[in-house]
């Protein structure tokens, strides 16, 4: 435990007057209850899903920092539309940071809690952009010997999301998968999982260098959405794989609709399968990210057996149940340095994460770039 | 059986050159096989879902008729975009007419087939815009004594769709329902079913006279989408009923998105339920119609637990299974003159259904207007 009895934790608050404020607050270090452990957070990644809570609908480009060290704050203006969308959070300091890893420095008296003493563990529990976090012992995933907090910082969001895509595919009766923004950290994991599990995967990327990266990894189907023949190439890949499920990280625009159009075109190639109400096999696109915040536009020229919807890891895991969760977590721990290895382009302190220039860098969400916060820095 | 051995049947064909053609073709009267019956079709309604097959993406306003009687044809031009959407049907004469009713005039030798001899039956089997239709005996729903073919012509599409909306609600864990275009024939049935079954229903209409009609029927929640306070009124009704499922007949535009926005706003009124990822309860809008053929625009300011998708009666019944189908069909037969009574504003012959002025009248799909084809006329 730290020598003094307080620690720093990041909060995001939206004021009534239309200003979003990110700051570090000083909190008393808690004493773990029976089944709890106190984790000294040593590494916690900045995921797109974290940024949703940190910045919401604020105008990050117009944001600015003031103060230094523990006193630094970042503030950004919020439009009227943004205020409407975020009405429910006005005045509430929201703790941020979905996942992270660190060392158990104090425990409660339960057997499970005591068994974790001194261990390096990964945690997904929110409030992780902090120097300490007190959590239920059962929420901890102990890393294998020799694995560091940095290795395990991104144990949950990306690995469990990628694995849960395959689980969703199986649960909902699909047999192959389409993924957009496929060169992302998550997308690369998904390529490795699909290779290991023999699942056919169609990767959609936006740039040639992203396509090259995935092809070099051995990905079989890589389609560039910037290609003139995008729709025809995607239809061919869908016909070859039989994919009727897609996970789209962009959310906005025409991409989901275009994927459904190509799924329907591929189905229509099956001789005699034509029906005026479209193909009977259900075609689904899940929007699991929001890289494009514009409206989703659906042209609906793909019959009646289709769906588009939001997809969120905690909602999926709640539906799938604890046995599935445990199975997926065990796989992540075992393959942490291979299938689920994450790469960070920058390591920053809690205070540096509030610097306006740094914010704008990680907020841009460039493919392949990933920031890690090291709260002990 | 008719005195000669041929009959007239309507077909819709799209030519390579971009013309959609509706015509009557002469077909030989079939002899029923063992488990089949031959039905003399006496009444068959024109539903919006039939018009999808009849006219597709053609420009009905620019359509014209030529010829008379059995030789009358209706042709309409098709845009390039329309041709792309209908590519799979080029050159195929499509039989039209989803449902109808008439008298069994010949049967096969099976016990079930023979038991239907002389009976008035309703049939949902496609190819119903015809003077005769040979179908499997098990596809027939015998009407109660004293009920005519006119009474039973619309036994399936609207009644089963309305009942299946309630089934969907129960199967997918919702407890109340929203319906758009709620003053339609189908909408009025749904009001009566929900009253009988004690299901809370929020009706969305576009005009005050439609609202008045439903209120007079005893509907409790009727919202006019033309109202200045539409969103606030809908949110209040959702809060009062707990509706997290909607069936939208319009399909295009912002209505589905607006309904989801109001569902989320209603959920956010529950104290302490705020989460940055939105309410956890799944919110669903099914598009079962296409009154507005413009794109569906989703603003996505309603968290992650939402879905939008197509909904088609045959797909639903296939999923629900034969026991559910049989239960719903029995209810329709028993309540044919009450809950499921249909009203027709016009009765026309097969040939009149191809008259360009008549086509434009029923194609306009005015609320409350419904055409019945009487093929023996």
Automatic annotation (TrEMBL), chains A, B:
Keywords: NADP, Oxidoreductase. Residues 18-301 form the Enoyl reductase (ER) domain. It comes from the Bacteria. The keyword Endoplasmic reticulum does not apply. This is NADH oxidase. One of its GO terms (molecular function) is NADPH binding. InterPro entries: ADH-like_C, ADH-like_N, ER, GroES-like_sf, NAD(P)-bd_dom_sf.
């Amino acid at each position: 435990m730290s020598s003094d009895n307080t620690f720093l934790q990041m909060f995001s608050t939206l004021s009534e007057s239309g200003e979003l404020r990110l700051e570090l607050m000083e909190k008393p270090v808690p004493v773990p209850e029976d089944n709890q452990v106190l984790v000294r957070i040593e590494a916690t990644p900045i995921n797109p899903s974290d940024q949703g809570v940190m910045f919401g609908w604020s105008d990050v480009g117009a944001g600015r920092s003031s103060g230094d060290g523990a006193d630094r704050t970042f503030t950004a203006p919020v439009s009227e539309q943004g205020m409407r969308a975020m009405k429910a959070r006005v005045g509430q300091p929201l703790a941020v940071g979905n996942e992270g890893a660190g060392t158990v420095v104090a425990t409660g008296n339960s057997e499970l809690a005591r068994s974790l003493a001194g261990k390096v563990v990964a945690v997904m529990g929110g409030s992780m952009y902090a120097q300490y976090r007190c959590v239920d012992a059962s929420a901890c995933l102990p890393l294998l010997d020799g694995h560091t907090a940095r290795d395990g910082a991104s144990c949950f969001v990306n690995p469990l999301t990628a694995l849960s895509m395959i689980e969703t595919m199986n649960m909902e009766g699909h047999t192959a998968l389409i993924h957009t923004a496929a060169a992302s950290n998550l997308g690369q994991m998904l390529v490795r999982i699909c290779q290991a599990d023999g699942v056919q995967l169609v990767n959609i990327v936006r740039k040639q260098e992203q396509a090259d990266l995935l092809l070099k990894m051995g990905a079989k189907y890589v389609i560039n959405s910037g290609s003139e023949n995008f729709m025809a190439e995607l239809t061919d890949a869908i016909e070859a794989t039989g994919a009727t499920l897609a996970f789209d990280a962009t959310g906005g625009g025409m991409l989901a609709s275009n994927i459904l159009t190509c799924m329907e075109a591929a189905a229509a190639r099956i001789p005699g399968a034509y029906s005026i109400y479209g193909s009977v096999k259900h075609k689904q696109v899940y929007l699991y990210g929001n890289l494009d915040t514009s409206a989703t536009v659906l042209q609906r020229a793909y019959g009646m057996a289709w769906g588009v919807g939001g997809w969120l890891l905690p909602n999926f895991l709640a539906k799938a149940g604890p046995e599935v969760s445990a199975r997926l977590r065990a796989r992540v721990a075992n393959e942490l340095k291979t299938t689920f290895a994450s790469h960070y382009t920058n390591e920053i302190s809690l205070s540096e994460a509030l610097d306006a220039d740094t914010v704008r860098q990680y907020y841009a969400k460039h493919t392949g770039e990933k920031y890690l916060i090291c709260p002990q820095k």
